[in-house]
Structures
1.
Amino acid sequence: MNRTTSSEAPSLGGAVAIAIALGIAAALANSGTFYTTGRQYYEACFERHLNYKGVEDPKPKDADQGALWASCDPITERVLAATGFPIVYEEKGVYLGGCPNSYTERPHAGWWILVVKRMAEEGGPMFFDRFIPAKWTVDRVIRGMWQNCRPGGQKAVP
């Protein structure tokens, strides 16, 4: 007869400890402790977009808001560059190609405003955007916006 000793039995305490640790990590990620989350990016940049008047950048109410608003441009531009879609500019009156087109698609405010508008059209951030880094959220939105682009800048043939 095989008897299971207490050291061989599954530990319920270990599973509870792991569940508690995961819950705490999720709560900290949701609050943006480790990084700017996708939801924080959307909320901050959407608010910046609502306050955008003409060509002047809006003035934030406080330092926290200013820091979040200032992250809209660099996060979006870093992700756009990392996707492999080169932002190609016009040189001496000749469009050098690229996808997306920096002249016909980039608003004066910056690429971030297109990402925020697209997210708003989709109903705002998704559930998992509360926990994942903003760069992952922006990457998902950018790839959705330019589905017919391939890394390297060529248009894909549908």
2.
Amino acid sequence: MIAIILFLGAIFFYLTDKKNISLLLFFSLPTSGFQIVPFSLMVLPDVGLNKTYDLGIVFLLFILALEYKKIIHIVRARYYKALLSIFILSSIIFLVSVVVYKYNVATALRPYRSYLFLLSFALFELYSFKDIEKCFKLLIFITFVQSMLYILQNPLGMPLLNSGLADDIVEHQTASFTRYYNLPVLLIPSLFYCLLFQKKFIPFIRYIYIASFFAVILLSLHRNLLFATILILFFSLLKSSNIKKTITYISVGSLLLLLTYTFLEDRIDEGLKDLQIVNKLQIDNNYGLLNYDAHSTNTSTFRAFHFLERLQYVSDNSMHILFGIGFLTEDAPQAKALHFNVGLKDESGQIAQINTGDIAWSILILNFGIVGTIIYLLCIIWLLVQFFKLFTFGYAKLCACYILLVLITSFYGTDLISVYCKLMLPLLAVLSRKEIAYYISRKKSYENTTTHIHHNTLLQPS
């Protein structure tokens, strides 16, 4: 119910030219009330509203249809070619799923619809740089509030955030600690912003934000996310050629790594053992993996098994090499024809054939095939290269760091293909383009003013 109110509010404030409010309300939809509102209050299952981000898609398409004359020239911009290419690729896969594979339209639409968020760059372009940046700062504050709630979950022994997409909260219980997986969905962009944009915060507030964001990563026990974050920050500093800051951050980072190892020693040792086992994996002719043991296999090994089994399946069919198995849901009749041995079991004891939260590449290789996955990856890398070329600009640097992180963690999660990545990439791309345009405009204005003053000086009598 609340999602409908937020949706109507977003439209109302856009039409009444209060665009910064409408943009914030738009982000409340895919994040299910910023993960703070109870999920049951956001949805209306009786009328088919089970995912709040569906209303975000409706808002996006409504505004694009309303403002189509303003956005025709936007889609041709160089910055957005990679995003458009991925969207076109996903649309082709959707058509193949319906026309060639004969899947039900509703079945194929469910995985496909999140790719519509890649078009949100056209929506963000309708807002001023000031409005988008103001909204982004508010999102960072909301992420801070979410982080504090996340930190309180263990002491209170109960989840305080929803997962953003569903009502269930995934957690792992040990004797003395509960590992919650409902991290704030915009945690990493918010952390990178606080680290890269030092002058946009009061120092004390900035340090509190950074400390809370790092605390969430530590409490999540997500070792790969932590190491990837620290590695990318070091790289960012080295790329910026700021020796003093690099030395300072390396010292602090080394101390943080030492504390991290003390806190996550068992998890790190387990990961190192996993990597040694991964090199010995083999695939048999029945698409199962030799020596796979669901009871003794650890996380990294499980992910490698999971991906390789699906890669083998796709490799044995020419159509699957080109287009994968298309957009298919776990509960579709066609999914029952799959017989993968590697995957998490559901409540009924059946192995999940398609869905996984462990590795993005398993889903990509099934949905897009080998050729489609390569194209997808090339688009992401092309986008990364474009932002590397503009690394001196703040938002270009932020976007490059974010892309690097989702690529690195794609072997240990699905952030690369998540709804939030499909939102953040267009948002950061637009912020980067507008920041550069603003800088060029100011530079030209300064040059024109300087020329005018110099010209008037020459005309004055001596």
